Q: What sequence folds into this?
């Protein structure tokens, strides 16, 4: 997203739709490309998860842990989301082994609430100031 021309075009499109159109960026192509990359990465993640775990109705717990991971790391920061995911995994395993297995979700969501109260933009996110 930072060093390739397509990544810069995608960031410009995400930052301001009208400004990207005025600059000559084909916004429809960038939106389609972003959706295609997201779908491909989700498919690859599903393939890896399918190799580790048998598909069952208990897989929603993994999906419900993705939201705290992204919000804790920061919505605008991809490395922050990765670090947030690692932090959520570490806290889940430590709380399951030291406290109780059922308390891990409660502790993760309590940490999410604490982060949202202290830094609403996440650990690695950037504060956006706007004038009205």
A:
């Amino acid at each position: 997203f930072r060093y390739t021309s397509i990544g810069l075009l995608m960031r410009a499109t995400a930052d301001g739709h009208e400004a990207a159109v005025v600059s000559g960026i084909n916004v429809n192509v960038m939106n389609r490309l972003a959706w295609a990359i997201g779908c491909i990465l989700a498919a690859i993640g599903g393939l890896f998860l399918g190799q580790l775990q048998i598909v069952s109705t208990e897989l929603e717990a993994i999906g419900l842990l993705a939201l705290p991971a992204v919000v804790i790391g920061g919505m605008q920061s991809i490395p922050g989301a990765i670090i947030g995911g690692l932090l959520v995994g570490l806290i889940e395993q430590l709380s399951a082994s030291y406290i109780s297995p059922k308390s891990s979700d409660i502790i993760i969501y309590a940490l999410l609430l604490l982060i949202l109260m202290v830094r609403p933009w996440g650990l690695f996110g950037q504060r956006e100031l706007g004038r009205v």
About this structure: The mean pLDDT is 85. The radius of gyration is 18 Å. The chain has six helices and no strands. The helical segments are 5-15, 17-22, 27-52, 60-73, 78-98, 104-118.
